[in-house]
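User: Run a structure prediction on this.
Assistant: Running it now.
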Amino acid sequence: MQARLHDRNTGKVLVEHLQIATTFSERFWGLQFRRELPPRAGLLIAPCNSIHSCWMRFSIDAVFLSPDGTVLAVKSNVRPWRATYPVWGAACVVEVSSGTVATRSGDRLYLSLYDLPAASRGKPPSLIAGLLKA
């Protein structure tokens, strides 16, 4: 499943190609072993309130979101083989290449879904339902 990540105030697309990881396997593998992220790409992991960067080959920025899409914390330049402390109230995290998304605590973000599998068309996972634009 793919999505775009938008700024709720401006409508600007922050991440054009956002892979959504909600199953154990998708969340477990995350960005491990990838050489890089393509431009304007990222990974949304839900549920998630902390991350590690073991087995990663590049630094990332981690944007922790509340269930309604409010940015609770931004951890910049998380290098390989590091971990973050849990972020209280975070429902998910968006991982992007370092320096590619300009957002800060308090910003409001939302998702627009595309490329839904046929079996789930029209039924986004409940874990991200609050992030969809109302």
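DSSP finds one helix and seven strands in the chain.
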